[in-house]
Amino acid sequence: MGDLVTSLSSSISLKDLDARSRDIFKQIVESYLETGEPVGSRNLSRLLPMALSPASVRNVMADLEHLGLIFAPHVSAGRLPTEQGLRFFVDALLEVGDLSSDERKRIEADMQTAGADRSVESLLTEASQTLSGLSRGAGVVLTHKSDMRVKHIEFVRLEPTRSLVILVGEDGSVENRIIDLPPGLPASALTEATNYLNAQIRGKTLADARTEIERRRAEAQAEVDALTRRIVDEGLASWSGASKDSPGQLIVRGRANLLEDVRAQEDLERIRRLFDELETKQELIHLLGSAERGDGVRIFIGSENNLFSLSGSSLVVAPYRDTEQRIIGVLGVIGPTRLNYGRIIPMVDYTAKVVGKLLR
To answer: Least C-beta-crowded within 10 Å: which of 61, 152, 286, 317?
Structure first.
């Protein structure tokens, strides 16, 4: 799918399926996206490009069901893709089409007409209506002011490496963004970040908050440097592994002497606390930086769709940006899981780009 889509990842990969299994699975999904109905082995054997008996198709379907990619909604019924199956199809097998020239012209004309009076509200309303009309789903627009001063911030984990950021402005506006998380970041770190930032960020923009946290981190690093220099110079410890992104490691070696030096003990305990603080500050800086950026068309299928707390639906969204390439909102389409993803993905992406240009 190229660089157009940033998707959630599936636990199944293409190497898990041979060519015959891929063809049968793809036919099941495409039939579902077109009709919404389960398809059986007899019909599949007629639709497939290769000659396979219904019995052979059933054997492959059993393997696909074992992998969790399809299921039978009723006994003796045909098969439908599971949510995991749809995710795998979107990530690995979907062929994203391109908009027709008429669709591009319609999007451009609708947006330009709405933006003629330079009303941001009318432009975004038209974007939502246009997407709804073209997709036959519901158009969704989330917007904010680029200089929004934050009243409240919250991080909600969607998956191990993705989080939803909810920003509430002092003016009452609400914005949601999807951000990347560092691999292995514990759930407690998001809770701590939420609590810390809500105590520190009120009345500040994200950029201001990040600058302030970076300043405090620099002060903590300077204190670490001063304390460690003293106990290292006195031969009570050694220092290694320091870098720009890591506070390094203090290796205590003069334990006996350290126990006799009350001040050194206090310094060491302070250094340990500062190490924790530096690590926390670095996580906060990363989270705030991610919240200011964000990228790609995002697809949420079924229960993945935590953004609207809906099951049995899919959401396709893309950010739009200002002149400085900062995200100033998100727009997209929400509808049933059998959305025409190949058509809607470029539609959402193109509309976001047109809106971004008209707002500059």
So the answer is: 152
